[in-house]
Amino acid sequence: MLVVKKFGGTSVGNAERIFNVARRCAKEYQAGNDVVMVLSAMGKQTDVLIDMAHEINPNPPKRELDMLLTTGEQTSVALMAMAFATMGIPSISLNAFQVAMHTTSVYGNARLKRIDTERIQHELEGRKIVIVTGFQGVNKYEDFTTLGRGGSDTTAVALAAALHADKCEIYTDVDGVYTADPRIVKKARKMEEITYNEMLDLATLGAGVLHNRSVELAKKYNVPLVVRSSLNESEGTTIKEVVKVEGMLVSGVAADKNATRISVVGLEDRPGVAFKLFNMIAKAHINVDMILQSIGRDGSKDISFTVPEDMADECYKLLEDNLEVLKAKKVDMRKNVAKVSVVGAGMMSTPGVAAKMFECLYNADININMISTSEIRVTVLIDEKDTERAMNAAHEAFGLED
Ligand code: ASP
Ligand code: MG
User: Fold this and answer.
1) Which ligand lies nearest to the CA atom of residue 39 in the structure?
2) What topology is assigned to 2-173 in CATH?
3) Which of 210, 266, 303, 357 is the most exposed place for a label (fewest CB within 10 A)?
């Protein structure tokens, strides 16, 4: 059996934890399995490196930032291989160049395009544990790229797909996927199973356990995914196409404070305006999420949308600089907002979920800024300070406590 095991920053945060992980993987290896490991940078090393960069230059060239950030993962894989060496277990660390993990060229937010598997296959045939750097890739200029924060999960799933692994396990510092972040919602409960689609929404909307592109890939290639703790042996949560119906309308609640609302005020009310605006934003590689357009009045309209906080200033500036091109009156930006979502495959066939969500927020006296929905999700944009209360209110209203 071939298993891909991914360990996040906390799981390899110090020497003791590195040995802990090494021992766990050694067991799998000694049972006769092929083991490919994907590691994140140790602890908060990526944040540390970003801070270091900003000390030198508040707006570092993106290529150089990736050059710097990729050292985090390179450190952890090398140390892990050294740990195996003390145990007499053959292993080898490989970075994105050595594997050859090909990505698009966008620094800081690259996407994996293709993974060469020859080198890894060769090392596995030599009965080595293969330890691969997460989060990084190589682009057509032969430069390092990174896949966006939390991207190691995506590296792991992509490798599992490319290698046709039997299993992809994401080890983290929590026991699995919860109905809500247990640090915020005390009564949150661990789920045994969840569908790819639900997990995709939860991940995108801020559940924080998995990188959303990793779930997208797992779904596309049908990679059996398990999220479990690196600190204990508990079973974790399995993510797959279909799960036993639990009769639950909503499976989980997620919040994302990393949202900024941008409003473009006084646009002309005629065809092509939204296209022009969002095309400009897309060309700058800025991800847009919720979109709201006001009804046109006196030939003018407003468009509001959310972007990730780290892209907000860039987006604001882009639009400010192009007010004339866009024929808009002004741009507004509000950073202290948060998205709170309820997600559940069960809501597809049941009306009234949105109403229930709005009711519980009303009861908690929380104002709604923007709303968006899909077949299996209701998302509201609210003031950031109300996030915790909104999550608890929704968790309770949908009966998710244990
Ligand atoms: N080290 C990277 C980060 O902190 C990638 C990851 O951990 O998945 O975002
Ligand atoms: Mg992560």
Assistant:
1) 1
2) Carbamate kinase (3.40.1160)
3) 266
